[in-house]
Amino acid sequence: MQYKVTNFIALILLIPMLFVAETRAGDEYSIRAISFGEVKGVNRSFFVEGEAGEDKVDIPFVIWLLQNKDRTVLFDAGYFRESWTKQWNTQNFVSPDKAVANAGVKPEEVTDIIVSHMHWDHAQGALLFPNANVWIQEDEYVYYTGGAWQEGGNSGGIDKRDVEGFVKLNLEGRLKFVKGDNVEVIKGIHAYTGGKHTFQSQYIRVDGKEPVVLASDNAYLFQNIETQTPINKNATFSLLSNRKAIKRMIELAGSVKRVMPGHDPAIFERFPTKGRVATIRE
């Protein structure tokens, strides 16, 4: 009898632990990469500082889809304007709001978009998702709606129409500011600065038993991460800051294998892939 009572008590004590485990599992985000187009034959030296020669790489444009039981989040949102598609001779292009359908998501179901930086191919698509709050570093927004366009400013890669669109998002109350480094933007997703691809670009860590860092263009390729080599000097405000950020990303992820670059075609080779969608974490 005592044995049965002991087992019963042990079971009662275990139930809350099982509940907590289930809750944590429900809170953990799945992570998928969605390709919405690609550019063929870009020189690798464009992406890796110090790289010589004429080695070419095919570059995918990528949206990152993060989902748990409460939220459907995009990290970066791609682009849609035809002028950029033509300028970059984009192949197999699908508008980002259509591309997410490959992962079973409707544009209106997206709750949040975290924008890594204001370049056309990462920020523009945020204007396509009507119900999403859009998160951006405050300093990034302030610079590209102000100083970037003044004498001595740097507005390279920024589409004026996107700037107008983000001002409109702000006026609508859908633009949300991330203020600085190591900020929990949404429960389970932290933002970090220091990569300096743009004035105040950010990257994120998606928490979990095995955290994953999404670098966006703060590291273009796995090569940047695995060799801790910064992106090309023409693609960053600071080579030193970029190098330090890559090292920090690895520390935040706990493994070089859990840092995902912004434009590496190997994403769709190293991870289970169906069509345009690669699953990084179920």
What is the spatial order of strands in the main beta sheet?
Answer: 6-5-4-3-2-1-13-12
Tally of separate domains: 1
CATH superfamily: Ribonuclease Z/Hydroxyacylglutathione hydrolase-like
State the assembly state of the protein chains.
Answer: single chain
CATH architecture: 4-Layer Sandwich
Describe the overall structure:
With about 280 residues, the chain is of the alpha/beta class. It has one domain: Ribonuclease Z/Hydroxyacylglutathione hydrolase-like (Metallo-beta-lactamase, Chain A). About 30% of the residues lie in helices and about 25% in strands. It has helices spanning about 1-25, 80-85, 95-100, 120-125, 140-145, 160-170, 220-225, 240-255, 265-270; strands at about 30-45, 55-65, 70-75, 110-115, 135, 175-180, 185, 190-195, 200-205, 210-215, 260, 275, 275-280. The strands form 2 sheets. Strands 6-5-4-3-2-1-13-12 form an 8-stranded mixed beta sheet. Residues about 1-25 have low confidence and may be disordered.
In short:
This protein is an alpha/beta fold.
Index terms:
alpha/beta, five-stranded mixed beta sheet, globular, 282 residues, Metallo-beta-lactamase, Chain A, eight-stranded mixed beta sheet
Secondary structure: elements and pairs:
Blueprint: H1 2-27, E1 30-43, E2 56-67, E3 72-75, H2 82-87, H3 96-99, E4 112-114, H4 120-123, E5 133-137, H5 138-144, H6 160-172, E6 175-178, E7 183-186, E8 189-193, E9 202-206, E10 212-216, H7 222-226, H8 239-253, E11 259-261, H9 267-270, E12 273-274, E13 277-281
Parallel strand pairs: 3-4, 4-5, 5-6, 10-11
Antiparallel strand pairs: 1-2, 1-13, 2-3, 7-8, 8-9, 9-10, 12-13
